[in-house]
Design goal:
The protein has about 270 residues and is of the alpha+beta class. The chain has six helices and ten strands, in the order βββββααααβαββαββ.
Length: about 270
């Protein structure tokens, strides 16, 4: 990812442990073409370490902080204990994104019979607009080839990218809650049914990335779930549905309450 370069002090890197000794461990930096760095035992974990092998083992992947760089000598000092859980998670997500993007671009290369130079040129154009190649494919999967329009990528290549993107399971989020609905009217069941059906947006007329669904859990409870590409979009869909159902039920002299449940994200391919 960074050929012929050295990492900067304060940078967070992914590394593979290559050798473990009593006073520390040598690692190869995955994003710097296997460049070697050193992790001193004092930077592995807080406090006294009885056995270094309980913390680092040969072949393990570790997220590390670059403490010090000496370009003249080629020395890179690293730290494991100064990495927070959030930093570790973020770095792992970044690396996975890079690997997924690389896999997708290789599929484009094979299908379009492109050279490595061609692929490199396409990636450079993608990075002029997107943070990662994978992000570009997600946008193409959601909104089509126009997502990379104006970047100077050939139509045939964009068409191949669309074909590859169509096979991606797009990441999404789901927010949901349970509605407690009751009506004392003789035709209360039919009243509730009509209000619920009328509150769900026309799927054919709305966004392809958004979906709202109501599930009957057993009187008087119904679950409302909204799936979208991000939490902000999902909330934008859910709130008016809840408001419309509540208004409709109360106008018919019924009762309504809504209890949120835990939101969740879908896994990406």
């Amino acid at each position: 990812m960074h050929a012929d370069e050295m990492p900067e002090q304060g940078e967070i890197v992914m590394a593979t442990v290559t050798k473990v000794m009593d006073h520390g461990a040598y690692v190869s930096l995955d994003e710097y073409d296997g460049m070697q760095g050193f992790l001193h035992i004092s930077e592995i974990a807080p406090g006294w370490i009885r056995s270094i092998n309980k913390h680092v083992r040969k072949g393990e992947k570790k997220v590390l902080l670059v403490k010090k760089v000496n370009p003249r000598r080629g020395d890179i000092d690293l730290s494991l204990k100064q990495i927070s859980k959030d930093q570790k998670k973020q770095k792992i997500r970044e690396v996975k994104k890079y690997e997924k993007g690389n896999t997708l671009m290789q599929s484009v290369r094979e299908k379009a019979d492109l050279s490595e130079d061609d692929i490199s040129d396409v990636e450079d154009k993608i990075y002029s607009k997107f943070d990662s190649v994978y992000d570009a494919f997600i946008e193409i999967g959601r909104r089509g080839g126009s997502s990379v329009g104006g970047l100077g990528i050939g139509k045939d290549i964009v068409g191949t990218m669309e074909e590859v993107a169509s096979k991606i399971k797009l990441p999404s989020v789901e927010i949901r809650g349970v509605m407690d609905i009751a009506s004392s009217r003789p035709d209360g069941v039919e009243v509730i049914r009509k209000i619920l059906l009328g509150a769900i947006p026309d799927r054919n007329g709305g966004s392809a990335t958004e979906n709202a669904e109501i599930t009957y859990l057993g009187a008087p409870k119904y679950r409302l779930a909204v799936t979208s590409e991000d939490f902000k979009s999902a909330e934008r869909v859910l709130k008016p549905i809840v408001s419309e159902i509540q208004s409709g039920i109360e106008k018919k002299k019924g009762t309504f309450s809504f209890t949120r449940e835990e939101s969740k994200k879908t896994r990406e391919n």
